[in-house]
Amino acid sequence: MPIIVNLDVMMAKRKIRSKDLADRLGITEANLSILKTGKAKAVRFSTLEAICQILECQPGDILEFREED
């Protein structure tokens, strides 16, 4: 898939654990894991907005488009 999710990278930069982020987002750690691994089929803008607020970043810091070879 050409959309790469760099959520784990931003979490490491901000030194926040999955459990803490999931708690602040109001989602389960399992659902956060699905987002982190890029297995999610979609992400709600409200969730993306909350992630960006908590991690103090832009959507482009989390989501990246790469052409397939």
TrEMBL record:
Pfam families: HTH_26
InterPro entries membership: Cro/C1-type_HTH, Lambda_DNA-bd_dom_sf
The HTH cro/C1-type domain, residue ranges: 7-62
Record's protein name: Helix-turn-helix transcriptional regulator
